[in-house]
Amino acid sequence: xxxxxxLVWLASGGGGIIAASWLLERWTWFQAKTSDIKExxxxxxxxxxxxxxxxxxxxxxxxxxxxxxxxxxxxxxxFLTVVIGKLFHRVDxxx
Length: 95
Fold this sequence. Notes:
single chain; 87% helix; mainly alpha; flat; 95 residues
């Protein structure tokens, strides 16, 4: 997935909520909140990510997106490698 595609995915309602949920679920401070507060934080975070993705796609010049795309590729490759490594480790431990 290229940077522009990611930003469009993030700007869609589903992308923002998935990204916000994934990020928030990993923070201890978030887990300590009541369900009502968690819902508000999730709603706010998803809105910020979605609107931010939309704003970047809409207002950021294509040349700028093209310039930062290699950095996005590197970061997303590292992310994917870590996820695959964790899955492999989980499967390897189960055997």
